[in-house]
Amino acid sequence: AQSVTQPDIHITVSEGASLELRCNYSYGATPYLFWYVQSPGQGLQLLLKYFSGDTLVQGIKGFEAEFKRSQSSFNLRKPSVHWSDAAEYFCAVGFKAAGNKLTFGGGTRVLVKP
Amino acid sequence: NAGVTQTPKFQVLKTGQSMTLQCAQDMNHEYMSWYRQDPGMGLRLIHYSVGAGITDQGEVPNGYNVSRSTTEDFPLRLLSAAPSQTSVYFCASGNSGHEQYFGPGTRLTVT
Questions:
Q1: Chain A contact for B100 (CB, 8 A cutoff)
Q2: Which terminus has fewer CB within 10 Å in chain A: N or C?
Q3: What 3-state class would DSSP assign to A77?
Q4: d(Cα A30, Cα A68) in Å, to the nearest integer?
Q5: What span, in angstroms and rounded, lies between the C-alpha atoms of A37 and B5?
């Protein structure tokens, strides 16, 4: 069965420190990959996406992610975290044969310490 | 463009009541979907539609109905609400092979 795993439920990071959120997927085909962010009480905002091509993807708010096919991973990174980055982050996977159906990971909640 | 809109924002139902969650998009997207969000489980697909008149089940369809009579609207019906349907519901739209845009959500409590 298709699945998406975000191993870290919570991460606490100091403001100005780097951040890496992990995402692993289990799919047979080459996937489309997404990272979404959700601030408290809000909807989901797309941070970045990967469809094909360069495996290092730049997104909004200074985030980037790298697709590693050999590891079935799509980890999200930010070099220097701001207090406003405190939110919940979701990795999502789809693939062409399934149209736009997405499978989401369970989410990682990021807390930022001053 | 208003994007994806959802109404209501909040709703409290008693067990056994029915209701419809509204979703509309003004981006002429062919694909629309409903997800529910529960703590620790991410978002799970309830139903989706690839165009007007075409709907299909997602991962957790039981207890929900949908229809798609127009490109713009994709309402979600709860036929007989149960406490297990307490959740936050998100509607999304997009074009095939592209990212989806999410609405602000409806927080539903069933008592």
A1: yes
A2: N
A3: strand
A4: 11
A5: 18
Specify the 3-state DSSP secondary structure of B62. coil
Block residue for tokens 């980055």: A85
Neighbours of A38 (CB within 10 A): 21
Tell me which chain A residue has its CA closest to the CA of residue B103: A43
Q: Which residue has the tokens 């990959």?
A: A33
Pairing of the two strands B76-78 and B54-57: unpaired
Mean pLDDT of chain B: 93
- Low-confidence residues in chain A, pLDDT < 70: 1, 96-99
Compute the distance between CA of residue A75 and CA of residue A43 in angstroms, rounded to an integer: 22
Do B96 and A105 make contact, defined as CB atoms within 8 angstroms?
no
Q: Which residue of B58, B94, B103 is in closest CB contact with A43? A: B103
Instruction: Work out the end-to-end distance of chain A between its first and last CA atoms, rounded to an integer number of angstroms.
Output: 41
Largest CA distance in chain B: 39
How many residues does the structure list for chain A?
114
Eight-state DSSP code of residue A71: G
pLDDT of B70-98, one tens digit each? 999 999 999 999 999 999 999 999 987 67
Chain A's closest residue to B94, CA to CA, is: A100
